[in-house]
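Below sits my pick:
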Amino acid sequence: MMKKIFGGINLTWPKVIIMAIVLGIYTAIMAMLPIVNDTSFSDLTVTFEVWILFGIFIIMNSKSPKDSAFKCFVFFLISQPLVYLFQDMIKHSNLFVTYYRFWVPWTIACIFMGYIGYYMKKDKWWGLLILTPILLLLGEEFGGYLSKTMFSFPRHLLTTIFCIITLIVYPLAIFKNKKIKLVGGIISGIIIIAISVLCFINPPIYSTDILSSGENYQFDDTYKVYLNDSKYGNLSIKYEDGIEAWMVHADFKKSGKTEFVLESPDGKKTTFDIYIRRDKYSITEKNN
């Protein structure tokens, strides 16, 4: 099966174009569906790990360096704009103008990456040098999603596993030489272990200010503030010179729903519901 995927398919131009159209529309749908927001199913809308797989798939099933270069270029030239254009068509938005410009350099770079990447098929040691930057980029994506999974388990778990599997599979499936396979596998193993250790040594923390002293709430550093369940993180009261106001500062450690309390020096408590996500939160004052 792996041999078929990585070099055993007759990848014609119609297949490349159809694949680009289908994946572009699918990605746009995942970006619009609220139910998959902030899950593994929407991750391909923002990061590279799945697109790396399609790039390598095209490279390994191309017939020459030029064939690889132009098929990679055309695939991304169709699929990436289509992600935004399809959303603009459905939502009457302006995403293409706003966001596609960030993909233009990457799309142009696909010509060179596709051309150079083809030489991985030669089964030489320098093919592993071509693959290694791809493994490092994939490792970076793995680290980001492992942190997200640790913070919001089980969100992004499938993407985290996908990154691990592809890190292992690429050197084993692309090369036939056993020594190159072994060294490639060792490189991937080192990347996986090193990034995993770093993520667990430095667990993810979402730091933000969640409440300010002003018209609705009056407090200063004589007040106490705390989460009812400390597993979600820590709260403190700090003075922000820039806006000249006291703020409730949060260092969140995991996502979920809990309560926090703002307590005055005379013991009066104001309780809030708080819903924590990886990069956002919502709070509502309870009926006290």
The longest helix spans residues 65-91. The chain has a mean pLDDT of 93.
